Structures are given as C-alpha cells and as structure tokens.
Amino acid sequence: MSLYNLQKFLYVLNRDPAAQESFRKSPATLLDQYELTPEERGALEQGDIGLLYVLGVNGQIMMHFAAFLGIEWFDYLDLMRKGIEKYGPVRAGIYAMTGAGKSFAEEDNRK
Amino acid sequence: MSLVYAGVLSHGPGLVGRAHLVKNTQKRDEFYAALDQQRQEIESTGAEALMVVAAEHFANFFMNNMPAYCVGIADSYEGPIEDPKWLGIERRKIPGNPDLSRRLVTEIMQSIDVAYSEEWKFDHGIMIPLHFLTPQYDLPIIPVNINCQGPPLTPLHRAWAFGEAIRRACDSVPEKIAVVGTGGISHWPATPDSGKINEPWDRRFLDQLMNRNKQALLTYTNEEIYRDAGQGGFEIRTYIAAAAAAGGPGTLKFYTAELPIFAVGCTVASFEISSDKQD
Q: In Å, what is the CA distance from B173 to each residue of A13, B2, B103, B169, B170?
C-alpha cells in the first residue's frame, strides 16, 4: 500500500511549478522518483481521476490535479462517480462517496 | 485589549471561480454583500493585522510532518497555489509581519505547542477570505493553520484552548488585531457529493457557536461529525477557535444552504470581544 507515496507525488506536483513543468515534459522522470504500485503509476500516467479517487487520494489533493489536467468541475465530479462504477468503492481515506452517486451540484449548467 | 475583531466566514475554491455557474444569483450577491460588510467592520476597527485561522488543504503541510497548529511568521507570503484562472484570483505576494508574528507565537507557546513556519503558500482556504476581506492585499496577514484534513486531528477542546491562547497572545501586544476563522460546517467537498449540505446540522452548530455554548460545541465526536457533516465538517475547529478567542457571544450575519455550487453552507458571523473568560 503506497497511498502515502501517491498522495505525496500529487502534493509536490500541486505546489511546485518546476515539478509541473517536469511532469508535462516527461512524466516518467518525475514518477520514477516515487515508489508506486503499477496501478497507482498507471492512474497518474493516464490521468484516471476515477481510479485515483477509488485508491483513496484525498479530494483536496486530487481536485488540483484535475484542474492541472484541464478537467472541468462537473466532469471531475462525474469522473469520480464513474470510478466507483468501474473500480468499486473507495478503498482508503476519508473521502468516500456517501450519496450513492446522486448529484448535489444543482447548478450544473452544462449543455 | 488588542483583539479588535473576531468572526468567521466560509471559504471554498468555487466562491469566486464558479460564481458564473450560480443559479441563485440573488442569494450569491447577498452572500457577497455580507462578506463586504465584514470587510467594512474589520476596517472600521483600525486593525493593523489580520490573523486568518484556516484549515488548509495540503498546500504546505503533509503527512510527512503534520502540525496540529501552525502560525506563519514570514515577511511575506505567496498565493494562490492553485491555478489562478481556476480559482479566479491572481497570484500575488501578500504582506506578513514577522515581528508581530513572533511575539504572538511566543505567547501562544505559553499554553499550546504551536509550530511556526517562515514559508507558506496560501491556498484557497486563505486566498478566498483575503479576496473579500482585504481586496487590496495591503493588510499584513498572519496565517494560522489547524490540521482538519489528515487524521489524527486535534481534539475540539484543544481547538478551544488554542483560540484562548490566540486571545491571550493578541492581548499581550499593542497592535490592533482582527481574527477570523474560516472553514466549512457540514460539507463533502471534492467528492462526488460536492454540494451536499446538512442544513439542520449547520444551523444547530451555528446556534451553539453564536451562544458560545462551549459544552455543546466540544461534545461532538469525530465519528458524529464524519457521519453527519462529512469530512469537511472537521473544519469546525477553526470556528471553535475563533469563538474561544472572542470571549463573547456571536451574531450570525448570513447563512444559506442554497448555493451548492460553492460546496458549503455559506456563512458570515462576528463575535463580541469580551474579557469575560468564565468558561
């Protein structure tokens, strides 16, 4: 279980512009510095928000990664729901879904 | 007495960046007006520094070395760490006051083993309050953090004691200081449940907070909070600290659960500054 390392990677990426530039240029260079499971590394490489959510990444850390990837807010919420459908319930952490997939974000103005 | 203002207000990354998505624009503008009123109240006190008791979200502190309490002592700060376009706030330098901060930390340490930091990048938890309360970014800021994100979390009675320590520290310096606590009440931010708000729970908590019902406020367990108010509810520690610092009862200036795009029950309140410390 290396959820700590997974979150540490995102913590560094979120707050360090040099790390962000490095990750954009060569994801492997930055990822190699962290001891991650293949599943965790793959989720980061693919930008798989749903899997990262299920793996237990704290939402306050992950939402910045979603923004970094250019994912819009409501899409971000949907990707987490789809992650639950695809991979099952959140496996760790305190950011488990409680609403059985219901949307509480009433102002969804997407067309 | 140098604590000249104490209050609380909500934060949330969407308060500015998602303002255009709000359906209930009237309620949104009422909220903004309440925040601007809070700004005016703080300015009218002649406050020389603003202490923001926040619950940051892994911008500076991580599980490699997580302080329960930390106070910034830097000459200046930078924020936001978030993408400025996403947050709706430009990145900038924010003034601090290292001399004042060090004196406050020294006094707080009489009763609380607070950490301090000379490096601090503000996230939305502080930038959103500053956007509304000191929009010119010309008031020196003293950032304060209570770990509300990475359990184990400090007990509520320690958050109260921390607030009292802040009060003693403010009263030990000649400068006029305003203190605001900023956090959510019930909310499930950054999850698929974003926008969910337990309004009855919020109103009960706020009633206890305004009445400064210490016994009720400190009775909540983490299990109850997580079940009824979500992981975001852990941030009540910032409100409890502000109430403890104030010493007097509060006035709820604004509350609504009708802006779910902001992912929190939007709250503005202030407390009477009282030296009645009969707790």
A: 39, 7, 8, 7, 6
The arrangement of secondary structure in A3-87, i.e. its CATH architecture, is: Orthogonal Bundle (1.10)
Distance CA A26, CA A88 (A): 31
Q: ipTM of this model?
A: 0.89
Q: Per the CB < 8 Å rule, is A59 touching B81?
A: no
Closest partner residue to B191 (CB to CB) among A7, A14, A80 is: A80
Answer whether B18 sits within 8 Å of A73, measured CB to CB: yes
Q: Which domains does chain B have, with CATH numbers?
A: 47-179+200-254 (3.40.830.10)
Q: Across the interface, do A106 and B23 touch by the CB < 8 Å criterion?
A: yes
The model carries a pTM of 0.95
B25 contact A CB<8A: no
* Distance of residue B162 Cα from the nearest chain A Cα, in angstroms: 25
Phi, psi dihedrals of residue B139, rounded to the nearest 5°: -100, 125
Q: What is the pLDDT of residues B158-204, one digit of tens each?
A: 999 999 999 999 999 999 999 999 998 999 999 999 999 999 999 99
